[in-house]
Amino acid sequence: MKTVIVNAHVISPGVDMPCAAVEIVDGKITKVAKAAKPGKNDWVFDAKGAYVVPGFIDVHLHGACGYDVCDATTEAIEKIAEAKLAEGCTTFLPTTLTVGNDNLVAAAKAVAEYRKTTKFSKVAGIHLEGPFINSKCCGAQNPKFVRKPDMKEVLAIDKISPVKMVSYAPEQPGGAAFAAACLKRGIVPSCGHTGAKLAEFMPAYKKGLRHMTHFCNQMTPLHHREIGMVGAGFLIEDLNTEIICDRIHLCDDMLRLVLTRRNLAHVQMITDSLRCSHCKDGYAFEMGGLKVQLKGGEARLVEGGNLAGSTLWMNQGLKNLRDVSGLELKDLIRVTSWNQAIELGLGDTLGKVEKGYVADLAVLDAKSFKVKAVFLDGKRRI
Ligand SMILES: [Zn+2]
Hints:
The chain is of the alpha/beta class. Helix content is 25%, strand content 29%.
């Protein structure tokens, strides 16, 4: 049976097509056109002029709805995946914290269990944020669990459930070789929670490192005599920079700087959302042994006040990108899905509303960007 989404305002990289129709057969997009004639037996969904965009891909998020990936239960992964789907996010990388090896192993087992059924948003693999970070740039990660880059530990986890990304500090001894070892295994090495100067970063770059974890946050700032990692992000075009678009982690001017001065093919929106995402204000919790409280929409460590992560939803993030930059959605939309898909090796099947692509789609209200519907493999799930 064919599914036809009519009255769709299709937004896809390089495409802005109002009054369009999207045809879906067997979970794949078979046609995107100005006009469609649904057959008698076709299932028709009227988008009523709403945006139809590629389902979001979030490569960096820790939790939602009171659950964290490091709770290491299948229930936690399932609840997080359900919350992500409600944001229009159809693929994600459950992201771990800097915790002990036993906790990482348990989290990987929970992810593996979830992947057997994948009831909600799809998991493309695990993102290990730490534990191989710089203990001076922990942010809200617990320094107690920081350790040296260790490929054996990564591979042991990868065996349980595939690891797709590792955020680490490349200035550490063996940092460049670690990047090369990750790439050899199809894992994206990412520079994050780092105190590297530009020269200390370059050996890992030369080995192929092309990703930066939450650009500007927990990395060396730009100084006019040492441009640090923030300077590197502006100087080097092909670094894929994650940005948290909650307008708290980066001020609007920095978001504008990134979106207007960097090549949008190398920018990726993330939420870095914590368990307090989708929760009410005042919610308090522990993260990697540290106390965090949600106040006025900001999740901060009770002690010291460091930002601990965000409560952002992907659909709101896209609206923030548009509102702050004034750029066109057809240019911004690659920042929320396709760029991520390309880096994860899925760029031929995910991240576009185009013939041949998997019908993972989010339908957003054209004013508020609220999620009106979500399609997963062509089936309406929300
Ligand atoms: Zn994070």
